Structures are given as structure tokens and as C-alpha cells.
Amino acid sequence: MKTPLITMRFIENLKFLQEKVPKENIIFCGDDEYNEFLCVSCGGQIYGVAYFNYGTNSQISLNVRKNLLYIGASQNFICIDIDGGEILFNEELIFPFFEMLYDENSEYLCVVCECNIICYFGSKEVWRVDFGEIINSYEIIDNKLFVKCVDKKEYIISLFNGNIYE
Q1: Contact criterion met (CB below 8 Å) for 17 and 26
Q2: pLDDT of residue 1
Q3: Is the model's pLDDT at 30 over the cut of 90?
Q4: Is residue 129 classed as helix, strand or coil in its secondary structure?
Q5: Which of 149, 152, 159 is nearest to 126 (CA)?
Q6: DSSP secondary structure letter of residue 85
Q7: Contact, 106 vs 67, CB < 8 A?
Q8: Are 155 and 146 spatial neighbours (Cβ–Cβ below 8 Å)?
Q9: How far apart are CA 148 and CA 131, in angstroms?
Q10: Does the pLDDT value for residue 27 go beyond 60?
Q11: Which of 161, 160, 23, 132 lies closest to 147, judged by CA?
């Protein structure tokens, strides 16, 4: 399977985004005033994302096996079926998006937010864990997610089911 070329660039304003992207492919995130505009091209399709930047970087990731494009921006997590050109979901997150962690061995994708983590397998949510504090470090090792919060509490979580090891 050939990996599709993905390009991502920021656009100056909503008007320019609307000129470059078909209306049905523009994704609006949240209710706050939009101050960032992202243009993503993948698999012959072009998508636009309008969102409010809470101070974290947007990110894209690709699941080559399932041909899914993931976009994390602001307080939203978006999943797009590259083959069908369909936006599968635009989930509004409880906390601001931080980063995506993808485990290539198991195909699990963890969406790390300010105070919680949501794990997906393909386009399906498998589990989520909410923490009482802000997350400040995390990594995937051997099908386990290691998380440390600002209150110094550490967690080891199974990628498969979200169970926290004691």
C-alpha cells in the first residue's frame, strides 16, 4: 500500500480557507472565535479546519493500515476516511488537545489532552481515563501507556482496555 502524501499549512483567515477548500470539507471546531485556519491535503482531498488556538500545536497523524487521517486541533479530535473522503467524526474534547501518540505495533492511537487521555483503535473509541491533574509526561512502551501528572502521581495504563495497573 502506498502512503499518501500529506501536506499541512496555515491559512491567513477564514475567507482564504473558504476559497481553497470545498464547503463540505471545512471543519469548524468549538464555539470560540476562530483564530487559526489549517489546510490539510491528503489522498487527493483537501480539508480545512477553523479553530481557536488555546496555546497548543495542532497535529496530524496517519493510520496507513486503515487509511485514516487524524487531526488534533484546539479542543477537537477529527478522523477522516481517506479512501471515501468522508469526515467520520469531529469530537469536541473536554480538555485542550496536547498530542497524539500512535503505537504502530498495535494500531492504538492515544489522544493526550490536558487532563485526560482517549484511546482509539481505527475510528472507534476504546477507552478514556480522566486524571485529577494536568498531564506533564507520557509515553508508550510495550503496549502500556506511562503517564505522569503535575501532582507527581504516575500511572501505567493498558493500551488494550484502559485498565490502570497498581
Answers
A1: yes
A2: 57
A3: no
A4: strand
A5: 159
A6: T
A7: no
A8: yes
A9: 10
A10: yes
A11: 132
Distance, CA of 162 to CA of 46 (rounded, Å):
34
Concatenating the DSSP letter of every residue in 68-117 gives EEEEEETTEEEEEETTTTEEEEEEEPSS-EEEEEEETTTTEEEEEESSEE
Q: Check pLDDT > 70 for residue 51.
A: yes
Query: What digits encode the pLDDT tens for the residues 99-156?
Result: 999 887 788 999 999 999 999 999 999 999 999 999 999 999 999 999 999 999 999 9
Rounded CA gap, 25 and 85, in Å?
9
Q: Is the pLDDT of residue 158 over 70?
A: yes
Nearest alpha carbon to residue 97 among 55, 125, 62: 55
Q: Give this prediction's pTM.
A: 0.92
How far, in Å, CA of 157 to CA of 135, rounded?
Answer: 14
C-beta contacts of 44-49 below 8 A and 24+ residues apart: 44/4, 44/85, 45/80, 45/82, 45/85, 46/20, 46/21, 46/22, 47/21, 47/71, 47/80, 47/87, 48/11, 48/17, 48/18, 48/20, 48/21, 49/73, 49/76, 49/78
Neighbours of 21 (CB within 10 A): 23
Asked if 93 and 69 count as a contact pair (C-beta separation under 8 A), the reply is: no
C-beta separation of 146 from 139 below 8 A: yes
